[in-house]
Design brief:
Chain lengths: 178, 296
């Protein structure tokens, strides 16, 4: 079957999609967007987290056919998504908002690097999407808020402390910016 | 495999009538796991995401009519006052990502004894509104669970909504697991005080082939509370009454040993949760007889 939907602001058409296929598979294997990771395919790890019409979901548990006509944001589009949110206008010309190439990092991405919250990096895309969405809803999160928002994302490397640091840092910088 | 995409409830019912083997998919948080792991290869998937009615709810005089696909996140955030027990149970489901997709209709469709909505629905009192092209009917929640992962739906029926009694007193939900997120219940317990009818209702999860009420325990407690005038005098429930209630709740279990826990642990834990949830709700009833808020 064919599925038409918007990914990172750009209309996409995926062909020959098997009816039982997940959104995650379509993104990675058909649209060349391997940022969302496949670790468990059963909703346990959160490394496949994307936003579906703005809402964070596990893309491994969304059937491809369910996204027909809807909007998906993946980690590749996170920087432009964050930029549009802060400027309230379209992303500047010349950037490929589809793959994220040539785009500046979003504040959350930069904070993960600065805080040393990335080790093997496999969990990172899902955490970034989840953390960014929480900061959008809740600009001044408590530690409990952060833990709750990230409770669906597993990391086998960092022990989570640096991830907590990164999200606190992103929140603090976001606060300074306004 | 075929992917059916009805745009309305009527179309969904027509599709289910035409293809009774079609597997409905709402949040997909149960269905997609089975497909990803090749445990299930349905001939037809029937997508319910386009049926907007299913994600809406109506707060009526006595009940909330909760659309089958209202995600847990909405229940937690928007229905805490009307459905405190279900809101607490919803908050213990999986993770934010899963709660953004999954809902009570899917929990009822799967009818796992470990589903977290069930104890809360049993305790609050609920009816499941199901419909087919043949018509619509209300199934009392007690009659909905018919076996391990089996429910009372006919092959051509879909769940439209759940009618849940609005809380008229404190409600609690308690769940035993190894961590605070992303955990399937070892066992779970829901309890609701109904001051208007002077009754207490319970729901037990993961400790019998289906979710069940502890009816003997409820009858015992209802009689003891009536006899002692507790609803009027608001006294602390006698420890011996609470203990007997807890023992009867444990006795209502028919658990198995599995990877998550042993049968005897489950029975023991249900007794503890029964006593605690009774104490918490009764304290809150005594504190503010009119309160309908559940404590976190
Ligand atoms: C990682 C993970 C953790 C989980 N943790 C928990 C947990 O802690 N507690 C818990 O209770 N559950 C848990 N679950 C299970 C699942 O999230 C719930 O059962 C959820 O309520 C299912 O809802 P859904 O909309 O996603 O259902 P779906 O997967 O879309 O459907 C589930 C079943 O219901 C049927 N169905 C759906 N809607 C209808 C309808 N309107 N009419 C008729 N049939 C219908 C489907 O055909 C299917 O058989 C977890 C799942 C995952 C992946
Ligand atoms: S791959 Fe989707 S949650 Fe793990
Ligand atoms: S950095 Fe390796 S899993 Fe998180």
């Amino acid at each position: 079957m064919r599925v038409n939907f918007t990914v990172n602001g750009r209309p996409q058409e995926a062909d020959d999609v098997w009816e039982g296929e997940s959104l995650l598979y379509v993104l990675r294997e058909r649209l060349g967007l391997p940022g969302s990771k496949n670790a468990c395919e059963q909703g346990e790890c959160g490394s496949c987290t994307v936003r579906l019409d703005g809402v964070p979901v596990c893309s491994c548990l969304v059937a491809a056919g369910q996204v027909e006509g809807r909007e998906v944001v993946t980690v590749e589009g996170l920087a432009d998504y964050a930029k549009q949110r802060s400027c309230g206008h379209q992303a500047p010309e010349g950037h490929d908002s589809h793959t994220g190439e040539g785009t500046e990092l979003s504040p959350v991405q930069q904070a993960f690097i600065d805080a040393g919250a990335v080790q093997c990096g496999f969990c990172t895309p899902g955490l970034l999407v989840a953390a960014d969405e929480m900061l959008e809803r809740n600009p001044n999160p408590s530690d409990a808020d952060i833990r709750e928002a990230l409770s669906g994302n597993l990391c086998r490397c960092t022990g989570y402390e640096k991830i907590m640091d990164a999200v606190r840092l992103a929140a603090a910088r976001q606060g300074e910016a306004v | 495999m075929d992917f059916l995409r009805p745009a309305s409830w009527e179309e969904a019912l027509a599709a289910k009538a035409e293809h009774p083997t079609a597997v409905p998919i709402a949040g997909g948080t149960d269905v997609m796991v089975e497909i990803n792991f090749d445990h299930r290869r349905p001939e037809y998937l029937l997508d319910l995401n386009r049926v907007g009615d299913l994600t809406e709810w109506e707060v009526g005089e006595d009940t909330v009519r909760l659309g089958a696909s209202v995600p847990y996140t909405r229940i937690m955030e928007d229905l805490r006052g009307e459905l405190p027990g279900l809101a607490l149970a919803s908050h213990t489901v999986a993770s934010p990502q899963i709660r953004n997709r999954g809902g009570v209709g899917g929990n009822l469709g799967t009818a796992s004894p470990a589903g977290d909505a069930h104890p809360a629905l049993l305790a609050a009192g609920a009816e499941v509104e199901v419909e087919s092209v043949r018509g619509s009917r209300l199934i009392p929640i007690d009659a909905f669970y018919t076996g391990v992962k089996r429910n009372a739906l006919a092959a051509d029926e879909l769940i439209r909504a759940v009618h849940i009694k609005k809380a008229d007193g404190p409600q609690q939900f308690s769940k035993v697991g190894t961590r605070n997120a992303m955990v399937i219940a070892v066992c779970a317990f829901g309890l609701a005080l109904h001051p208007e009818t002077r009754t207490v209702r319970t729901g037990i999860g993961s400790a019998a082939p289906t979710p069940v009420r502890a009816k003997t325990a409820e009858e015992f407690l209802n009689a003891a509370l009536e006899e002692g005038g507790f609803w009027d005098n608001g006294k602390i429930i006698t420890p011996s009454v609470a203990k007997q209630f807890a023992d009867l709740c444990a006795a209502a279990c028919n658990p198995i040993d599995d990877v998550r826990g042993t049968a005897s642990y489950r029975r023991h834990a249900v007794g503890i949760m029964a006593r605690r949830t009774l104490t918490w709700t009764w304290e809150s009833y005594r504190g503010t007889a009119a309160t309908t808020e559940g404590a976190a």
